[in-house]
Write a structure and sequence with these properties.
It contains 8 helices and 6 strands, in the order αααββαβαβαβαβα. It is α/β, with parallel strands linked by helices and 199 residues long. The radius of gyration is 21 Å and the shape is globular.
Amino acid sequence: MTPAFEKLQKHLKQLPGLGYRSAERIALNLLVEKPDRLPALVAALEEAARAVRRCTRCGNLAEGDCCEICADERRAGSVVCVVEHVPDLVALERSGAYRGAYHVLHGKLSPIHGVGPADLNLAGLLARVASGEVRELILALSNDVEGEATCHYLTEQLATMGRPVQVTRIGFGLPSGGGVLYADSVTLKSALDGRRAYS
């Protein structure tokens, strides 16, 4: 293969979810099988790089100062769901189960990987709480050590602010249609801890 092809393949391979073979197939498809698609793809990438940025309020993707969710007055702005990354927000939106506001941290606390509070979008969240607009924070962070540490840090920061904000955590447990037999111990513990009255 040519050096230019190998360079393209190398950059494609760096994308999440793409291995060596997938990157090779995409590169071959764009250059050999469907070269007419390449200019449109390059134009779309350049346009997105110019236009898309972080929402100044919540950290979601936006093409102006605010994203479509923050600009939607029909949503309950006093209830804010805190997520780690934009794909988490997209998954919650796709479910149609939530009609409030969001706040994207763009990560979680991880001292091992050198991620501290200053590396996350925490200041904007605390400013929203300080303004008095937030009545409830729903913590929709990972059910792992870093996610728990981030939740703990947030609740500590909120306690020092003196604002009456209800803090809730999403439930974890068995997936719909899943059984106890194949669940791991962390999932089973979460399912048991998150049990509620059955009527």
